[in-house]
Amino acid sequence: xxxxxxxxxxxxxxxxxxxxxxxxxxxxxxxxxxxxxxxxxxxxxxxxxxxxxxxxxxxxxxxxxxxxxxxxxxxxxxxxxxxxxxxxxxxxxxxxxxxxxxxxxxxxxxxxxxxxxxxxxxxxxxxxxxxxxxxxxxxxxxxxxxxxxxxxxxxxxxxxxxxxxxxxxxxxxxxxxxxxxxxxxxxxxxxxxxxxxxxxxxxxxxxxxxxxxxxxxxxxxxxxxxxxxxxxxxxxxxxxxxxxxxxxxxxxxxxxxxxxxxxxxxxxxxxxxxxxxxxxxxxxxxxxxxxxxxxxxxxxxxxxxxxxxxxxxxxxxxxxxxxxxxxxxxxxxxxxxxxxxxxxxxxxxxxxxxxxxxxxxxxxxxxxxxxxx
Length: 373
Ligand SMILES: [Zn+2]
Fold this sequence. Notes:
Blueprint: E1 5-9, H1 18-24, E2 29-32, H2 59-65, E3 68-70, H3 71-77, H4 92-98, H5 100-111, E4 115-117, H6 122-130, H7 135-141, E5 143-145, H8 149-159, E6 164-166, H9 167-173, H10 179-193, H11 196-202, H12 207-227, H13 234-242, H14 251-264, H15 266-280, H16 289-298, H17 306-316, H18 321-334, H19 338-346, H20 353-369
Parallel strand pairs: 1-2, 4-5
Antiparallel strand pairs: 3-6
């Protein structure tokens, strides 16, 4: 492909949209490549700047921020029914079909008796208004609320046939669903019901209720990171994951997770990442040497892979700092558990051998529940 030209729409897909794209992208020359896969970043070449005033952007930035994607094409990616998928949450059916971690957590949540609802109820309204305060009602009520973004998107497609929008614009303007994250809490909650005795014996009041919630949060963070590395159709993966998760695909994290699976195996990768998130949820600092060492030791990481284990711990500590500094302490404070949270933060919980043994065993159960990925 020569500089100055731009992809690329497969001939089998609606050549009539080319004039629309031409209009949207001004002086770019558009070329049809008969067998091109729709909107793979590798198919997009940004033009050489015609003069110094034009900012050059990478092909990935171009594809994400400027390239208009037909809305009906996006919608068609998400229209194939799948068992346990939510037909009216935009991107959910696509993710359920193509993302094994996403599907594994959904199946586990449904297996434990949870169901998902976009019905307008007091819980659904409270969740939309102030979601974090509704976690206990979700766990004990058995219903995970979500927003029927897919229905809204479909109405838009019908209203504006042939319309295109950049993926970044859609990601920024369609409301995200977090049924994936919430259902991970439900799975963790259900798994831990079998270990109530052990939980009480290793953490006495007031820390036991906090510990259970933090363990579940670490599980939710872990499956969201692991789910972010799945690729089927890159542009769709990136958009739909962002619309259904707190995380988004990142090349650096993909590379690390793949390396970890190859070198350590998926089970050890999961345990290390889970323990890293457990530590991150109890800290507002970057991970110290002591934290990295106790994660590696508790996770059973071989000494030769200490560097990799440290990288995984640092990835776990990329957990949103606002969440670590504010959401966690205020959440526990809201329900009268602030002293327990503060005590757990101070305790360096993983430094005790019996706690490490319990965390390792629980991580193994969580890993199994999510499909051993
Ligand atoms: Zn959470």
